[in-house]
Amino acid sequence: MVAVVASFVLAGCSGSASEGGDKVVAAAIDGQVERPNLKLGFIKLTDMAPLAIAKEKGFFAEEGLNVTLEPQANWKVLLDGVIGGQLDGAHMLAGQPIAATIGYGTQANLIAPLSLDLNGNAITLSNRVWQDIKPSLPTEGGKVKHPISASALKPVVAKYEQQGKPFNMGMVFPVSTHNYELRYWLAAGDLNPGYYAPGDVGGTVSADVKLSVTPPPQMPATLEAGTIEGYCVGEPWNQAAVQKGIGVPVITDDEIWHDNPEKVLGLREDFAAKYPATTAALLRAIIKAQQWLDADSGANRAEAVKILSQPNYVGADEAVIAASMTGKFTFEKGDTRDAKGFNIFFDKFAGYPYYSDAIWYLTQMRRWGQIAEDKPDSWYFETAKAVYRPDLYLAAASKLVKDGVIPGTSVPETDGYRGEQGGFIDGITYDGHQPNAYLAKFKIGLKKGQKVTAAGVSGS
Question: What distance in Å separates the CA atoms of residue 68 and residue 63, rounded to the nearest whole number?
Answer without folding.
Answer: 14
